[in-house]
Amino acid sequence: MTDALLSFSVIPSAAPSAAHFLILGGLSAMVMGAAKAGFAGSVGALAVPILIYACGGHSALALGMMLPMLIVCDYVAVAYWRGRWDWRNVRMLLPGMALGIAAGSVVLWQFLRIGRSAGGRETSNAALNLTIGAIALAFVGLQLYRRLRGGLTAFRPVTWHGLVAGTAAGVTSTLAHSAGAITTMYLLPQEMPKQRYVATTTLYYWIGNQAKLLPYALLGQLNGEALSAAAGLLPAVVAGAALGFFLHHRVNQKIFTGVVYVLLAGVGGDLVVRSVLALWG
Hints:
The protein contains eleven helices and no strands. It is mostly helical.
C-alpha cells in the first residue's frame, strides 16, 4: 500500500526534497507554459534541463513527466491557432518525424536498458544527461549561427529538406523534447507571416508529441510516478502560460532571448561536464 501511495505522489521519489522539486519543477513548468504561450519560444529549451535538476538528476523521469505537460499545452495552442498553419510544410516534415522518433526511441531504449542492469542506473542517467546537455549546447550553437549569418534568403523546401529536418527534429524531440532550433532553421527562412509560422510549429509539435506517446508508454516512461508528478505541476504550467501572454508585449524579447541562450549554454555545459566526470572521471 505504501509503494502504491508513493507511486502516485506529486513528489517523485528521486527528488532530493519536496521543496527542491516544487521550486525547480514549478519553474520548469512555468518556463514551458510561457514558451507555449508564445513568449520567447526558445526559453522552452530550458524546461527539460531544469526539470532534470528538480528530479535529482533522474533524466528518464524528467522526460516522462514533461511529455504529458507538453501535450496539455499543445491542445490549447492548436485550438487557438486552428486553421492558420501551412499544412504543406507540416506534411513534408512528417515522414522524417516518424523516422526520427523511431531512431530516438531506440537510443532511449538503450539508455533505459543500461539503467535496468546491475549498477547501471547511474551510468544510464549520466549518458542520457550527456545527450541532453549536448543537445542544449547544439541548440545554442545553431541559434548563434543563425544570428551571425544574418538575413537568411527565402527558400522553398523540397522533399529531402523536409525529410532531413523532420528526422533531426524527431530524434532531438524524443531524447530531450527539444526540436525548436531545427524547426526554426527549417521554417524561418521561408519568410512566412508570423502567425502562420507560429501556427505551423504548433501543429507540428502537437502531432510529434502525440506520436511520442506510444514509444514512451512502451518504454515505461509514462508510469504512475511520472504522470502524478506531472499532474501536480499543471497549475504552474497554467501560471506560466498566463505570464507568457502578459509579458509578450512588455519585455524586450531580444534581450530576454540572449539571457536564455546564456543560461541554456551554462545548464547544458554543466550537464555535459557532470556526465563526463560520472562516466569517465
